[in-house]
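Archive entry. Fields below.
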Amino acid sequence: MSLKVGVMASGRGSNFQAILTEIESGSLDAQIGLLVSDRSEAPALRIAEEHGIEALSLPYDKQDRGAFESLAGDAFEAAGCDYILLAGFMRILTPAFIDRFENRILNIHPSLLPSFKGLHPQRQAIDAGVKFSGCTVHLVTQELDSGPILSQAVVPVFERDTEETLSQRILEQEHRVYAEAIQVLSQKTSACKI
Ligand code: GRF
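PREDICTED_STRUCTURE:
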């Protein structure tokens, strides 16, 4: 049985799309059980619909983050998801949700962690004058962008780069490295089930 993942996305969903493409081409041995979005207009929801993936758009109230998270968590469990992938999910998760799915939430962040945590990491990289940046797939822990690193990819940063050009170069690597990290998990998980 292949690894079943749930996905949380707030926006355009290019990482979600890239993972789907790898699954559909047979290069990634996983299935997507459910997509959850906190934004009803998120393009990621359309992508799910086009590919026949079950999707939920849930209301998000900043004053009551727990309500969104408990609905999302219950739905991921009901769908039998082994892992939850954050793919451009722009909300901070509460400790309760992170505990509930301890070591089973992955995130992709567009910098070489531990450098440039938080918002606008590509702009932070340009402002710091680094010559290389990249992206990181990591497990989600209580501290923002700080969990154990599963995979990274490096890209050069050029003098002429803007936040947009660097983001695009990094994004191409995100699409590759996220699927690769999930494939490693899938192999490890199926080895454990034998
Ligand atoms: C990506 O750069 C990801 O690393 C960051 O948010 C962006 C989401 O892009 N966490 P997309 O929605 O997957 O296209």
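CURATOR_NOTE: Strands lie at 3-8, 30-37, 55-57, 83-86, 105-109, 132-139, 149-156.
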